[in-house]
Amino acid sequence: MFSLARPHRADVLLSAAGLAGGVILWLVGIHIQNGRLFDSPWVSLLPLVVMSALELLRRSAPRTALAVGTVALVADQFTVGSLATLLMFTDLVYAAVLYGPPGAARRIPVITLLVTVATTVGFVVWMPSADAVLIGIVVGMVSFGPALTGVSVRNHRDAAVAARLRADQTALLAEMDRVQAVTAERSRMARELHDMVANHLSAIAIHSTAALSIDDPDTSREALGVIRRNSVDGLAEMRRLIGLLRDGGGRTPSAAPTLASLDALVGQAGANSASSGLTVTLTDSRAGSGPLPAPVELAAYRIVQESLTNALKHAAPGPVTVRLGRSGNLLTVEVSSVVGDRPGPRAPGSGAGLVGMRERVALLGGTIGAGPVPGDDGTTSWLVRAELPVEEGTLGR
User: pLDDT at residue 296 above 80?
Assistant: First the structure.
């Protein structure tokens, strides 16, 4: 289809060079054939001018340029001919394959090959001589050779485009992976920060409120002791987290907490909640207390820690029981506390702790539930129960 787009600069140069070269050859009297129908040399300038003009369309309308150029080349055979006209036609064949649509790029080499073969056979039958074969070779060089060159260049160009596309897709996937990794790391940091600090800050909030609201020196002294202890422990936890986040520093970060530290956690929770009427106990019914995979131990520890924090905030006076058990490939973690109203101050909750527990369990491929459970004695308990796979091969499934 004809296009009115502005010609490319290189096409303008090719057109001008072809026209100038043909005119120079005409001026010095160099022609490529004799004894034609139109023997006057000036007639050969007409196909030359047409072919030169078609060079301006080699990119914008390659098929139209090739079709009209073929007619111009045939017309040139009835004149004394010009080498410049012939060379510009070969460029039109090359451009039609390179810049034309994919269908044309596939058909043109086949058509030019058939034309070359048919021309060679026809001339051999008409005049059996070496000249007939030479004519076939020339036709192949003018038509099939440029078409084959265009196919090769187009294939290399398409391969380069595909390679750039794959590189762009790879870069996009890498960026998506980076964003996901950053998001996951931020979520992990948020869970760690919440689980490490919320317990201490909840105890500080409750006991500071008690110290301000109860006018009793002994109670205030006990509350201030709990506040100081939790402040120091919370500061230590914050320093540990900051140490983990620092780049380099030449220090080895402290190890993550494990189930072996539950005794200390339960003891601390009991001391923090004694003034609220809570008694915290730990029951470990596992057969053997060998180490579990590090992600499982950390998740179980954080679940117990967050559940004890929630009990300190919301539970009514009574027992808070932590139970550990193992059945086959599952580690069971349960924390129960009494549901009901209790006197004294409470710390507000945001719900982020339950979200963090669910995220930890989901990462390990386990299950978790939290809700009220009626008891045999008519009371209602709040039960957090999690089941975590303990074999390395089952984590995350």
Answer: yes
Question: Could you give the CA distance from residue 125 to residue 377 in angstroms, rounded to a whole number?
Answer: 114
Residues in CB range of 83: below 8 A, 6 or more apart? 22, 25, 30, 32
**How many residues are present in the chain?**
397
Kindly report the number of other CB atoms within 10 A of residue 156's CB atom. 10
CA separation for the pair 64, 111 (Å, rounded): 16
* Residue listed under structure tokens 């303990």: 390
N- to C-terminal Cα distance for the chain? 58
Express each pLDDT in 124-167 by its tens digit: 888 888 888 888 888 899 999 999 999 999 999 999 999 999 99
Residue pLDDT, tens place only, 177-216: 888 888 877 777 777 676 666 666 766 766 676 666 666 6
Where does 339-396 show beta strands of DSSP type E? Answer: 367-374, 380-389
Tell me which DSSP letter residue 394 carries: G
Return the bridge partners of 162, or none.
none
- Asked which of 31-35, 218-222, 380-384 is least confident by mean pLDDT, the reply is 218-222
Per-residue pLDDT, 47:
92
CA distances for 230 relative to 202, 239, 242, 323, angstroms? 9, 14, 18, 24
User: What CA–CA distance (Å, rounded) separates 397 from 389?
Assistant: 9
Tell me the backbone φ, ψ of residue 391, rounded to 5 degrees.
-95, 140
Q: Which H or E run contains 330?
A: strand 330-338
Q: Where are the alpha helices (DSSP H) in 214-261?
A: 217-245
Contacts of 111 (CB under 8 A, 6+ apart): none
SS3 content of the chain, % helix, strand, coil (to 5): 65, 10, 25
Alpha helices in 29-144 (DSSP H): 45-54, 62-76, 83-99, 102-126, 130-139
Question: What is the rounded average pLDDT of the residues 115-128?
Answer: 88
Domains of the chain: 9-171 (no CATH), 255-397 (3.30.565.10)
